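Sample A.
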Amino acid sequence: MILASLAESRGSGRSAGSVMRRWWIGAVCLAASASLHAQGSVQQTNPETPTASPAQTGAPNAPLPLSATPPPAAAAPAPGTEPPAANGPAESSSEAAPSPAAQSQEGSLPSGDAGASSSNAPAGARANELSAPAAPVTQAPPASIPVGNAPRQRARRAARPGPSTPSPITDHFALRAIYFLGDVSTHAQFNPATGPAGTPFSAEQILGLSNRTSQAQAELMFRLEQRGRLRLNFLDLRRSGDAKISAPLQYGSQLFNAGSVLQSEVDWRQTDFTYTYSFLRTDRFELGLGAAVHLIQAEATAQVPNTPQRAVYSEAGPFVTIAADGTVRIDRHWSLNARGQYLKLTINNNNGELAIYHADIQYRWRDNFAIGLGYEREHVDVDLLHTNPSGYVQLNINGPELFARLSF
């Protein structure tokens, strides 16, 4: 049959190679159309059954099925050519493949036939594009939707720009080196376990302790995230003195007679941990509330030198106060700072009161360095009625301070 077609093509003035190429292109188009039609018919057999996606079936890199719409019509053949059969049966393999004689004649075709062959190439290319599998589609995880107003408020606070001018409001770490010059007054009474009550006395007037103190102190501040502040304060107040008492002094379980020369020492050590949360924080204002834990250790000693007459009274324990802290930035260099801590507590007729107030003004000389002048007052009142030994201690410390502040 192929030889007869070739003979007829020679008789009609056509080239056998050109005819074979047109048959080859028609066969490719016929195969592509049949494949697309078969895939479309598979999906149309059960249109109500949903097709599982690769993400649901778990098959990795599985191509998505083509649409069930019918395939587009094949391109029309060039004028003067024979159109390929649309749905006819496929020819045998001997008819689909060109013979060696046709290949030898195909190699000797003139350049005009090559141009005719290239004009029919896009039809095959479109068929190949339609039969190519689609790229796998990856489904993105669903975005989380915030529930309630709290996530939205946190997002708005995070997006809100914070203060930018260097000041105590923007510092994340600060170290204050303080020189404190203050007045001290101490009143106490130490009762023995049995017998008469102790003698109330003033440590500065009776025991000869100094009522002035000048000492170096330190303060650390850490900012936790944007609104939390943790402050650490240290106080170590140690005083000693000698005095000749003019009246008997019942000092706990020890009685000192009139005319005795007493050597006495009173130590007060205190460490404060204060945390505040700033519910108001802008570029010029900051105000926070929180709580503080105070670790206090007190010791009072009185003795007559070179005698066994000696008495020691000591106590240690924590105390908690309510704290408030605020800052006002006046301008680029000046800021005003104030804070207070207070609590009065009564447990089993044992009373405790602690109040600390502080205020200062700072001059921001550099972005990370400031100097300032402040004033601080501390009042302590401990009254132990049902302890052994019992008694009370009142301590007042107040005075000005000069400091340098290094911050980041």
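Sample B, a different protein:
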Amino acid sequence: MNPLVTDIGRPFTRGERVDIENSKMNLLIDSNCPMEVLLLDVAPDGSSEIIGINPNGPYFLEKHGPAVKIELDLESLHKDHKLILAVYAKHGVCGDILLTLDKPRGHIALNTDDSAGVVLAEIYTRNDSWRMKAYGGTYKEGLPAILSAYES
């Protein structure tokens, strides 16, 4: 991770909520460890399901070395649902993570404190506009703990 190499925009703080400027949301996740990406669709009743990767669906990703580029088509998602964007380490801990959003241009740098899983962001609608909350919640137990936190 080298924030001096490219324009990563202004820093977001944990808990900050930002308006998403268009229906195509592009994110870049950069870390110094091998990780997997998880996108959960959480319904208003609290039930959740994992959204699969599909280039023709709402969620697609490309791996570029240690970085992962994610594209979300927000128009194809339920406006009354909340999306949880998380990463988890395949082995060991996540390490430091840099999450960059394209519009509005900004980033959040996260120290994962020896955790195997991190919820990076919550994506939701408010007043018919998509928003993102820069979350940064860590889970020492990784994927099982993240899934347990969002079970109904």
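Observation for Sample B: The chain is about 5% helix and 50% strand.
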